[in-house]
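To: structure subgroup
Subject: Chain for Friday's discussion

All,

I'm putting the inputs and outputs inline so they're searchable in the archive.
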Amino acid sequence: MTARTRAELALLGVTLSWGGSFLVVKDTLATLGPFTLIALRFALAAAALALVFGRAAFALGADVRGRSNLRTAAAIGGLLFAGFALQTAGLTTTTPARSGFITATYVGMVPLLSRVLFGRRLGARTLASIAGALAGLFLLTDPRGAGVNAGDWLTLLSALAFAAHLIAIERYGLGISARALSLAQMATVALAAAPLAFALEGASPQLSARSLGAIAYLGLACSALGFLAQTWAQRHTTATRAGLIFSLESLFAALLSVAVGAESITIWQWAGGLLLVAGVIVGESEPPSLEQNRGLGV
């Protein structure tokens, strides 16, 4: 087995764990508030990265540059927090499959935001990707059924935040060590969520063995280990091939949710979800203008 094959299998495993996170979050929200779950998940992920990377995880730079990089990393982490807060809150009223598919629209939002903010040209494949994603999103809402709910809107807003987060990394974060930037972001998310959890959800969360297992899975497997695996794997494959593998995340979320009986999906929703994934794949196959760091996981 070649290094490239091993790397792409590792990325497939990461994507599968990210797809499973939608179901795990949905289940855990029955006993924990969204901000409590986010705070505990990212505090654990930050601690794990700090232990694994050691001093290298804190290497933001010396003196003035270090303070500037810390502010940049905190701002990027704020966008990541907004994405996870909206996505997790959305899962209180939408389903894991719908959340996974709607979250995937952030891929199409990245070039749109780049066009609005920085005047970047949209290529033909990008336009086709956006059209496919919009058509898929329309079908996913099952126009013959219940339609869009509040959780779907929150998830769509989370996709916008995730798109802004990727743009911020591309434009402002590439000069910062990937290890230090990742730790700073995860710490920022945990610190932003903690006071909201305390104020809105109480100081004494009811932690069961099941919820502790969920926090360990989300913090270690999805965030910390997912980042480590991706960092290694993307040295042995291309960004385009990695992006195509990551595009399967929403499909995994839907398949896992249906497989365990957490929800049922109509033919309209399957068609919409698959069309949305197809749009993502078309967009991912267009060569990126700049390298994007996608090592944080949704």
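Points worth raising on Friday:
Residues 3-284 form one domain.
The longest helix spans residues 63-90.

D.
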